[in-house]
Amino acid sequence: MLNQPSPLDLTFQALADPTRRALVERLVRGPASVSELAQPLKMSLPAVMQHLAVLESSGLVRSEKVGRVRTCRIDAAQLSLAEQWINQRRMEWAGRLDRLGRYLETLKDEDGEES
Amino acid sequence: MLNQPSPLDLTFQALADPTRRALVERLVRGPASVSELAQPLKMSLPAVMQHLAVLESSGLVRSEKVGRVRTCRIDAAQLSLAEQWINQRRMEWAGRLDRLGRYLETLKDEDGEES
DNA sequence: TGGTTGGTTAAGCATATACTTTAGTATCGT
DNA sequence: ACGATACTAAAGTATATGCTTAACCAACCA
């Protein structure tokens, strides 16, 4: 993976970590400062900052610093992107099963009409 | 991450790699053998097998070997799991924005009624 | 029976991830 | 001005990831 990762790579990668999902779960309930986000987590502040950096580089989270406090908020557009990718695959798969089922049905019907 | 990863960890981690997403994209169009899956990819067979192992340990893909050929198929349930997690967060966020908007609206109304 | 096909195992290697501790640098309150 | 607060930067470390190549095994097929 020496070529630069796509937005989808970054988004799924960001969501693959339980700490980062916890951060997202917190942020959907409203914006929060870095130390506010770090408080319930049992790891160092720099560790939390690194997780936030991952979330931010994926586009899932944006943040702005005013004075000495950085306020983070989630960006739902990126969540949608990931959701859409999964949904499209699931739909494709469901559609296939549906067509397959219908096809097997026609086979049974033809069988019934036989002889 | 020395404690064992959750199903959600494994699923998002599996989807974070473009090669593995390509495998999923192929498999939603129907089951395939290992070498069939490897053929369009420009990497060694063992590399593809390792990606398949990741997909399988996440539950996104199941496979069975008959004779000397292993046939892989996707398991949509695991796709749903990931999709649901995202969807719930997105809903939560949307709901919050909605409530916030309504609240601001009431403030404006009260403001209008003032003095 | 012996070669080809389809898959598997093992080992090795470069880079990436998830932390840590230590040492900062700007605010902000008094 | 001075200390506390909120964050940041840098470096180090252990483990994980994404490959590779070189064997190897177990059908199948002539």
Automatic annotation (TrEMBL), chains A, B:
Pfam family, one: HTH_20
A single MF term (Gene Ontology): DNA-binding transcription factor activity
Domain HTH arsR-type: 1-94
Name the record gives this protein: ArsR family transcriptional regulator
Gene3D superfamilies xref list: Winged helix-like DNA-binding domain superfamily/Winged helix DNA-binding domain (1.10.10.10)
